[in-house]
């Protein structure tokens, strides 16, 4: 590392002091945000945001609401007030979670709920040493090898979008699909994780039957429990299976929610889908929102997805056979090429949301 650093230093231009100071200021702000998101993780896990959403409170009163120690709560609330996630009234000594902030930090039914992302961010740091070694060797690191907070955190991060858009906006954009699943169709959800997307569809379409598969056995167990809690266990089956081992169809609809880019062989997975679709059926691919040109993804969402792709998606794909490693910012052109290579003749971007791209493929 010393040789690399020395070479870099000798070849660099003399830095502009004003620009150094400006970037150092930005770095300080970014460090403050990084620290704040450790506090967000605590607040999400301990129910502090929900407790504070009931109304302004002193640290002592908030601690009492949440059943926690007041001294720790004061430090936590002070840190989030310092960065502006909470507000503070010096006269009353009360902290407050404005309703606009509560929609992002406390309300899991809100399409803008993001507190669960802190669990995913925690995973990045937890696996950092293993991922650094993968940089050196080129080896992969499987989804199942990460800290357990990843699995629940991912489900909670994506579920608000699925809850608010899947049935009302995404499925209606697929040709004739609402009629099929309303009348009684069969649907396969590949890479279903904890089953949020599968269960949301099962709740909306009581005449259809749904199958969710995932290679991660613990996630399938969680999905089965969630189906019972939702009262749809009679119309949903969750199975431990990989994307190349899908249960024999045929299906009216095969879905991939935020997972195809994680697969080592996405073309092979899509070919399996093509072989198990009914005539007139559709494949629905939901992927992280991205543009085809790298520079068009230089925005906060792109930065978040590239970080996730570095630690999670690319190593996951590299841990499997072929290891194509599409990455979380594959973009519509590369995704369409994958589906066309798998035998789909009609591929189009059906719609998009604030964070997702929805593609329909038909034979």
Task: Provide the descriptors you would attach to this structure in a database record.
51% helix, two-stranded antiparallel sheet, alpha/beta, 15 helices, seven-stranded mixed beta sheet, 2 domains, Rossmann fold, 363 residues, single chain, 9 strands, Arc Repressor Mutant, subunit A
Structural write-up:
The protein is an alpha/beta fold. The chain contains 15 helices and nine strands. It has two domains: 93 residues, Arc Repressor Mutant, subunit A; 204 residues, Vaccinia Virus protein VP39 (Rossmann fold), CATH 3.40.50.150. Helices cover 51% and strands 15% of the residues. The chain has a seven-stranded mixed β-sheet, with helices on both faces. Strands 1-2 form a two-stranded antiparallel ribbon. A hairpin with a 3-residue loop joins strand 8 and strand 9. Helix 2 crosses helix 5, helix 4 packs across helix 5 and helix 7 runs antiparallel to helix 9. The chain starts with a helix and ends with a strand.
- The CATH C-level name of the largest domain is Alpha Beta
Q: Whole-number average pLDDT? A: 95
Distance between the termini: 52 Å
Low-pLDDT stretches: 1-6
